[in-house]
Write a structure and sequence with these properties.
The protein is α/β, with parallel strands linked by helices. Helix content is about 50%, strand content about 15%.
Length: about 180
Amino acid sequence: MSDLIIITGAPGAGKTTVAETLKEELGWPLVAKDDIKDHFFEEIEYQGRDFNAKLGNVARSLIVYFSNFLADLDTNFIIEGNFAKDDFSTVFNGLSEEYGLRLYQVFCTGEPETIKKRYDDRHSGGNRSSGHDPVITIEDVQWFNQPLDIRGDLYTVKDLNFDAKIYVKDKGLKPKH
């Protein structure tokens, strides 16, 4: 039985930071939505919000594809993205049932205004690829600012208050290295 850590939350809530620290601590493969999108944006230009939303859906579909692949190999892995509760709870519960995965959800959250400001500051500072929307609304934040309804452990990270070493120890997760 292998483990799957799902890192989710609103854009700007700190998912990538948490995912990278867990990847470093555990040595597990990480499949991240923005990494997938960044590869596409090396070849194509940003074409607006609707296009970016479609590309985000493609990236999330690829995460599910790679999750099936990694689960079939019986390996522990991490996925990261802004997964909508209504769309992905059933998908991840199904993966757990099909492959016997233990699910761990790390939900990154905060006050919507704080998350929006973090997102805006990061974008205006040039710390994001060209594939990220230049603008995010409070409604965007609220849509993704809820945990998935999945079987397994739920751990909430508010305002990036996260220590990977403590999390790994508390959950009894086994590093690869």
